[in-house]
């Protein structure tokens, strides 16, 4: 299988081989996707019956790409008498392709250009877990276009194909019979529209008054404006600048307008398999990027509040006050074959909602949003105590209500084998992972601030603060493993310690729940040889029975995970350790063209000498992209205090000088400048 290349605009994207063809198979998830559906599964180009091969691929922006092609096999390249340029972009929510045929001979030549077209209208879930997919639906041929459609009761999806030059359309594609003059060229533009139709035949987006997607010139202007509004970064270490620029572009590419808030933008969680609303990823990415691109946080908070749980629904794991974790538009969700319509199977999302709301106000001073979302925030805090505390012991637990098609683990490590004992056994349910307790602690403290300063309820604030302190006291008693000097990954259903050594405890530093007397031991484990690979902190330590350097949550390195860990280390004064993580993860990104991947393998750096890709990683992925920004915040020690931005840099020598200019916030725009200091950075344990 050739390497897949991609273009995207939010939750609309195309995956193809490096010659531009889309040939789906169980091992090749190519296609054109929108609204959690594959609208094209075959898009295959031939010139005079021959497939084309790439000479070069140029991708100047997230939404467009250019392929330089010749027919035949590589041995023919030198003598090619004809070549093609295949320009492709996303525009106005459509997939557009401009074809140019170049005749390199001294006489006119006739060519037959054929494009094979098909669609299986597969839900994304059928592509994530690949299996043989049957082509289905209906086909309508006209003189000026081809329509592929699929209808199941009220669920109706359509792919419309048209072209600017005359073509012969049939049920399986279109054919051009062309003549190109000597040393001449011929071109055409093809447009593929993905339609979500209502029973009356109207596009669902029109009914909802959803704005049409941007066209090419608007996308270019929008990207330029997006980058211009963000802070400008200068650094002696060019790798940081490369990753920062790539991160800004990737965030721009992941933006989309949700149907419920059609004139605002938020982030799709990742390409290709998470190009939708994922509550956890949206909240974390907004937190990571608040000092840089704060405007998406308000949209995210409003949207999640609109869909906050109100009833007990076992199928969707919904409970009153709970924040959704995933929303899908595809067929399987529409017909309740899967619960993502929406799905609430994440115990961490609800406290993170309160964390982001408070952090957003601290940076922006937007008190009106805090007041507007008071009921949602109170309901979220109430959910932690009423529904999250399954055992009545003050801890945040999870046990799926939907044990047929829901997720087993309701934390960020949601794969089935992720929460395990040191010997590889899996605990029963319910489970209380350690980072959930940190999130709950942080949410209660932040909720107390909001209640006291904005909701006019000091009694409620006092109660939340007492609950938070009691939770911290009990947590440091019940989760601490004395023999190992680290925090257990979780508590099992009997209250026993799930004793695997994992990266989750780094999130405890971020939330502030760790007693100061135990922070040094936690930092030592995180930077020790079992967890630290040399490229970042592994999700699971070596020596654990389930450890696998290519295991999704049991040995890989996740940049988002590391960014929270580095932020937590910085909060507790471990500035050298935070800098080491930041340096290693940013260096690793250079092996991925400056892009932070969702995850990469956890092999020791000395063994592989370079970070090994994780084969099924989303790329770009929102919270991985956000890691660069939170790492930069940690390096510069950026913290909002009232109407002021405090800057307290602590940089490893490799970074040299960093200048971050025009940082937005309640203070207007401010600059932050830091210089690496010789010797060991000075630790300040009172930073938090």
TrEMBL record:
This is Amylo-alpha-1,6-glucosidase. Residues 8-191 form the Putative glycogen debranching enzyme N-terminal domain. Transmembrane segments: none annotated. One of its GO terms (biological process) is carbohydrate metabolic process. Residues 293-594 form the Mannosylglycerate hydrolase MGH1-like glycoside hydrolase domain. It comes from Verrucosispora sioxanthis.
